[in-house]
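Hi all, posting the design record for the shared folder.

TITLE: backbone redesign
STEP: 1 of 1
STRUCTURE INPUT:
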């Protein structure tokens, strides 16, 4: 009887040890898992709002295009996979990344300390800044005049945070085109967005708008990648370095902005 009990206890102990070992193996992804899976699938998915021209937007054929999209396509090419850009709501985009709905965020996302707590970022792939844009006949001359004014921003952006800090009455939008249209119809006193985006919108749509004041702050844009994917981060950084060294980045940048915006 004692011998039988001993065998039962030994068997239970082995099951516990084996079970613990299996659980640990399944719950801890290896550093190369994401990159290996991307190469096995033959494609890399990257998300953006699709409402941030000329960086990312839908063309007349309802296809995602723009600077961000072409940068993503070139990265995919250098990893030897196909590219798959995805449009999604900006205010939930980091949650989408961390729950593995896509592999990266490549949508002009500013690198901030708050975001770095949740995701990793590539080296910056361009720099710009936050700009106040108003109707041409506006008396607003800069940030100090925005207190109590109706200011349009895209939901979940650093522009929204800044507008609230300045004491503005904030209206949020899915994309800048909606904010610019509301200002055109007199519903907003100002819009805060990226300087390059603002200049592009004014030129493309012949808006009677003007840029006022200095940049509210300078931003460095990076490609967001999950923290469990260091090999993918390394591959993306290598691809960016190659693109900037061999002239490909400059070519894409000049296509959209007539200058190198790195």
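Okay, here is what came back for every position:
SEQUENCE:
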């Amino acid at each position: 009887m004692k011998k039988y009990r001993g065998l039962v206890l030994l068997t239970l102990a082995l099951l516990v040890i084996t079970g613990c070992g299996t659980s640990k193996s399944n719950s801890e992804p290896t550093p190369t898992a994401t990159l290996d899976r991307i190469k096995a699938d033959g494609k890399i998915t990257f998300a953006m709002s699709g409402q941030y021209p000329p960086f990312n937007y839908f063309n007349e054929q309802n296809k995602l295009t723009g600077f961000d999209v072409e940068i993503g396509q070139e990265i995919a090419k250098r990893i030897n996979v196909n590219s798959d850009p995805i449009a999604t709501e900006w205010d939930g985009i980091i949650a989408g990344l961390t729950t593995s709905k896509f592999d990266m965020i490549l949508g002009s996302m500013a690198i901030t300390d708050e975001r770095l707590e949740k995701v990793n970022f590539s080296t910056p792939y361009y720099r710009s800044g936050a700009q106040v844009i108003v109707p041409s006949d506006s008396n607003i001359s800069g940030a100090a005049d925005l207190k109590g004014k109706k200011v349009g921003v895209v939901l979940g952006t650093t522009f929204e945070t800044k507008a609230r800090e300045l004491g503005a009455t904030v209206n949020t939008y899915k994309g800048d085109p909606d904010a610019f249209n509301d200002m055109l119809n007199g519903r907003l006193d100002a819009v805060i967005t990226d300087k390059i985006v603002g200049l592009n919108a004014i030129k493309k749509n012949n808006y009677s708008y003007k840029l006022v004041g200095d940049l509210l702050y300078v931003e460095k844009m990076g490609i967001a990648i999950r923290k469990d994917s260091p090999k993918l981060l390394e591959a993306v950084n290598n691809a960016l370095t190659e693109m900037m060294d061999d002239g490909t980045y400059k070519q894409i940048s000049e296509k959209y902005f007539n200058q190198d915006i790195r």
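COMMENT: The first strand starts at residue 43 and ends at 48.
Let me know if anyone wants the other runs.
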